[in-house]
Design brief:
Radius of gyration: 15 Å
Number of strands: 0
Oligomer: single chain
Shape: globular
């Protein structure tokens, strides 16, 4: 059985933020009635990468994030604002543990 490494606060917050971004991507993709294949073609980001972002397996690099936002007609600044608010909320909860 593999060992599960405990996460420190920063790793935990990073993981939650990756999940938040992934959920946002999936929600917007589904709202636009796009499959993974369609979003991949529209954004120029591979289907596998998008899938890994949606399940928080990989961290989204800025250039890929901007391509996905563009393909989904999302304003990156508004998305960053949502992410920042979520980060503040999560990090306060982690610091209080």
């Amino acid at each position: 059985m593999p060992k599960v490494m405990p996460m420190n606060n920063k790793e935990y917050v990073d993981f939650i933020l990756n999940q938040t971004i992934g959920i946002l991507i999936r929600k917007e993709r589904e709202k636009n009635n796009l499959t993974l294949d369609q979003l991949a073609k529209k954004s120029g980001v591979s289907k596998q990468n998008i899938y890994y972002y949606e399940i928080a397996r990989n961290r989204v690099k800025l250039d890929k994030f901007l391509k996905i936002c563009n393909a989904l007609c999302l304003n990156p600044n508004e998305v960053f604002d949502k992410i920042a608010l979520e980060y503040i909320k999560i990090s306060k909860g982690v610091d209080n543990k």
